[in-house]
Amino acid sequence: MAAGGGSAIRGTRIGSGPMGEQDHGYQAERRSVSYWDAEGNETVRWFAADVPDDELPAEITHPKSGLPAGRDRENPPSAESAQPYKTHLAYVQERRTEAEAEELLDEALHKLRERRGQ
Question: Has this prediction a pTM greater than 0.70?
Answer without folding.
Answer: no
